[in-house]
Amino acid sequence: MKTKNIVTNAIVAALYVAVTGILAPISFGALQFRVAEIFNHLVVFNRKYIIGIVGGVFISNLFFSTMVGYDLVFGVGHSLLSLLIASGLIRKVPNIWGKMAINTAVFTIVSALIAWELNLAFGVPFWFGYLTVGIGEIGVMAIGAPVMKYLDSKIHFSERIEG
């Protein structure tokens, strides 16, 4: 792995942790709106961002979660699984908006893992947890798509990770 990729992923992880930490009260629990999930759209620009995103989720859950053990398994698992599925599904999709829509759908569907976690940890009814977490996920990802598209026009995400 090139030094540039390592540094870029470290920056992504740090940004994910900073946003999650600042907004920790709304980033965890059955009613969550984890704004840092906007960074999940980086996989649309290059799958090499998976490392930074998952690293950010791991560190955020380690330091800010009230249910660390569960979040390190389910939260990190949710992100890794979603990113891998989405990056595979979008590989041949030419349209950036199509890629972001697929990515949003995958993250929302795989949020079932978080609903399961909330059920195990707090007894939150699975379908209620799935609904509330899913609404937060789709909200952040849908609002985040045009933000990330705009930022890409200025920052050029793919160039940042490639040598």
UniProtKB/TrEMBL annotation:
It comes from the Bacteria. Keywords: Membrane, Transmembrane, Transmembrane helix. The keyword Transmembrane helix applies. Pfam families: QueT. The keyword Transmembrane helix applies. The chain crosses the membrane at residues 6-28, 49-66, 72-90, 102-122, 128-151. PANTHER family: INTEGRAL MEMBRANE PROTEIN, INTEGRAL MEMBRANE PROTEIN-RELATED. This is QueT transporter family protein. It comes from Carnobacterium antarcticum. The lineage of its organism: Bacteria, Bacillati, Bacillota, Bacilli, Lactobacillales.
